[in-house]
Each structure stands twice: as structure tokens, then as C-alpha cells.
Amino acid sequence: MSVQHQIALARKYIRYRFTAGNRHGLHSPFAYALLDEVLYDRRPRPEYAPIEALRQQLLQSEEVLEVTDLGAGSLMGATNTRKVRDIVRHAAKPPKFGQLFHRLVKRFNAATVLELGTSMGLSTAYMAAAGANVHTIEGCPNIAARAAKNFEVLGLRNIRQHIGNFDIVLPRLLNEIPAPDLIYIDGNHRENPTVQYYLECIKKVKPTAVLIFDDVHWTDGMERAWETIKAHPATTLSIDLFFIGLIFLRDEFKVKQHFTLKF
């Protein structure tokens, strides 16, 4: 990430912190309950500990991987080798997000989860540890293989890995797996592909599904993608948490609702 990019992102984040709301004045019962009972539930759970212990091990790892196509969201330059610890430090979502994904799976009784972008599999593990069958797509075979070792260490047997270009794998997979209850889109980080993934996914998800988009303020292009997704007729409620965005498609929301909330 360039210095200019860091400065621009920091400015956006400061603006978000000053303008984001909380439970006060939140007039949607659905959003209020989600905020109060899921987003703000920071109680430790026994499922978290093994994943965080693994994270600490990976952060100490000197292992080097040859990688291919980390996408537009890569933070680590243009070389084709990465240390595992650097992938975890720069590309893995912090614990509070993985734990949020775990709680969302629990909240919505998600049986089938689809993830675009496995990386080292920490977020994948959080969702699988909540009981869902997780299908996760990773573009780099070596990263996928390293993630598979992590799943083995954690004893998770309810994860199915799919390796290849999202543009090719996603349409096929959506036709093969049960309708997803939750989709986490964490890869590519470009405007047009992000919108396209949304358009493909909304044809196949359950009406009660939640779609999670990573890094919605990462670039101007990702912000445009986020606005396009929010404005789409299928989107009835959105929650902007700055580093991620949540999208709901529920028919019971007769009027579009958009919230920016502190997290």
C-alpha cells in the first residue's frame, strides 16, 4: 500500500468514525437487534481460542510461499513470493471480524456459506466453527494448500475448497451447491468484478441471505461498487461498517434502508 493510499484510507476512516451511528436513533427493529445482539456481542466463545492460537503461530512463521494473482487488494507488492506471516498480517481480517462472521452464521442458522477468497483460512475457519458447510474459492493453489493444512490443524471437516479464477469457478459453484445463506466476498477488490459477483450471487441465494463485502472503502472503485450494490433493486437494507459492508435482500423491508454504524 502506498503512503498516499494509506493517508487517503485514514482520512476516510476518520470521517466514518465521526459520522457513523450506533443503536441510538436506529429505527429499524431488524437492524437494532442485529447491532445489539450480534455486532456488539464481544463475549468470548470457546470456538474462538483455537483459531486465534493458530493465528499467533502463523504470525511467527518464516515459511515462504510462491503465489499467483492476489488480486487488486494485495498489500504486499508485486513479487511472487510471500511469507506466511506477512499474508496473515496484511491480508487476514482481524479477530473481531472473523468472530462477527461466526456470530452471523449462528444468528441466521446458515447451513451453506460461500466465500470468495480463502487466503490462510482464518475467516473460513470462524464460519465453519459456527457449524456451516463452507465452500471457499481461492485463486492461488499454494495458498489454498497452506489453508488446507490450517483446517486440518483445527480439525474442521466441513470446508470444501475450490481453486481457480472467481469468474470461472463462481458461476459453476452457484449451480452446484445448495442456495447459500451467507456469502463473503473477499477477493479481487475491483469495481466491475465486485458488482458482477453480486449480480451472480443474488440469483442463487436464499431470500434471507446476508452478503458480506470486504474493503468497501478500499479504493474509489470499490466505493462505487458499494454504492451500485446498495442502489440495486434487490438490496433492501445495507449496513456499512467501513472495513466491510452487509447487504440484505429481504422482501419484508418495503423501503430501502441504509445504515453506517460504528464497529
Automatic annotation (TrEMBL):
A GO term for molecular function: O-methyltransferase activity
GO terms for biological process, alphabetical: methylation
Superkingdom: Bacteria
Q: Which Pfam families match?
A: Methyltransf_24
Q: Which Gene3D superfamilies match?
A: Vaccinia Virus protein VP39
Q: Where is the signal peptide?
A: none
Specify the protein name: Methyltransferase domain-containing protein
Q: Which organism is it from?
A: Chitinophaga niabensis
